[in-house]
Write a structure and sequence with these properties.
The complex is a heterodimer. By secondary structure, chain A is an alpha+beta fold. Chain A has ten helices and four strands. Chain A has a four-stranded antiparallel beta sheet with strand order 2-3-1-4. In chain A, helix 2 crosses helix 10. By secondary structure, chain B is of the alpha/beta class. Chain B has two domains: 144 residues, Rossmann fold; 71 residues, no CATH class. Helices cover 33% and strands 28% of the residues of chain B. In chain B, strand 4 and strand 5 form a beta hairpin. In chain B, helix 3 packs across helix 4 and helix 3 runs parallel beside helix 5. The two termini of chain B are 30 Å apart. At the A-B interface, helix 1 and helix 8 of A face helix 2 and helix 3 of B.
Chain lengths: 293, 221
Amino acid sequence: MQIGYILKEGFSGFRRAKLSMTAAIITITISLLLLSSFSILLINANSVIESLREKVEMEAFLSDAVSRKEADGIRAHIAALEGVSRVHFVSKEEAAEIFKEEFGEDIHRVLDFNPLPASLKIFLSEGYRTAAKAEAIYLAVNQIAGVEDVIYRKTLLEMLDRRAQTFLWVSLAIGACIAVSSIFLVANTIRLAIYAKRRIIQTMKLIGATRSFIRFPFIIEGLFQGVIGGLLAAGILFVIFEYLLLYAALPLEDFLKVDPLHYGVIVGVGSLLGLLGSIISIRRFIGERVVTE
Amino acid sequence: MIALHDISVSFDGQHVLNRINFSMKTGEFLYLVGPTGSGKSTLLRLLYMDLKPEHGYVRFEEFDSNTIKDRDIPYLRRRLGIVFQDFKLLEDRNIYDNVAFALHVTNTPGTEIRKRVLHLLADVGLSHKRSHRPHELSGGEQQRVVIARALVNSPVLLLADEPTGNLDPTASAEIVELLRKINMRGTAVLMATHNYEIVRKYPARIVQIKEGALQEVEIRK
């Protein structure tokens, strides 16, 4: 097979069928923009939820009878528990400092003595910041001798869990809708472009062209439409996220971050859309009889 | 060279061809006549195997309609030249590329393609219009391009399905003369037509399709 000729034929669509080529590229670009904006939002929303979870910490208050040495033992014990990333000791004095920062008043001046117990701040590892897993850690810590009380924001975690679940399902549903309609849209546009050429395909068959000889230029054309659509979509998103949002001075850069890999994925998905769209569409027209009665 | 044996074809339960036999020799010129809708195109489709018979077989050189695989049909068509009433040129490319396409299909080397395409375009008198698109040419000129394309792979048989159907009398005469010139050089030509004036003017063997049957006819002077 003449690879050079087939490649040339594949590219010639840019010259011979500018309109349908442009339509296909624009369709792919728009589909990818929709898909990727949505996935960027999804990824970032997830990281917002994750950062909220990070703020949930557990605090174990120690009995006044516990010595500093014993406290260190308890601390080591807790740090060894599954799901605990680190434990920070807060002495009675430090607790008083924190009280002063929060209330602007010295506890010694109010009460003559310091009622605030020493405590251990427990930070949970990623993946353990859910209500159920935190509860297990809570129960384990609560049993340790010398620990008077353990507090953490259970209701916040429960709420996050519920919201995250709903959020996941809703976004999966929306994502699936966008994905399905994108594939449909792209396949349809490519099919229309090939449909416009079906007389040409039939003529090629009459001249003795094999199916693969006819098929390959269309597939190459589809692949290129996908690559170009992908590059355009990635370029547009890059400009939006890396420049426009900064110039608009929107305080979004903390929330909306785009992994550079994402741009590569967009081009990849675009190529795949173009490739599959053309393979599926050409298959249909190439099998037709040459002369229709 | 080509033979149809005991062929039957029907569409929607109606016999278009009913147990017909037909053969053609190398280098022969033959008219296939009959009114529109009589089955001339059906017979030609059988020959280039766009249609398979319900009964009987078509044999062209080593190809047999009963045993040929779909993927081998392109190789059969490369040995035939096919000319249509509606030309069937590739509208998305110029005349030169239209003729060259038939050679790209057969994997002919680039220098050879150039030589043969230019030679054939000169032969049909269209060298100067090689960069034109099909729609920029008159009907007669388009049909000459189709003939050039059909001949570029040196077929043993040229099938022409109403090649003058869309042309005025002058252009029609030119096309038939061109087909006869091609035949003179050794290519067999099977021309389906319902233009009896042409048949009368350029006599050759005539086969008529009538009510699903084939019969040899003599032209009355």
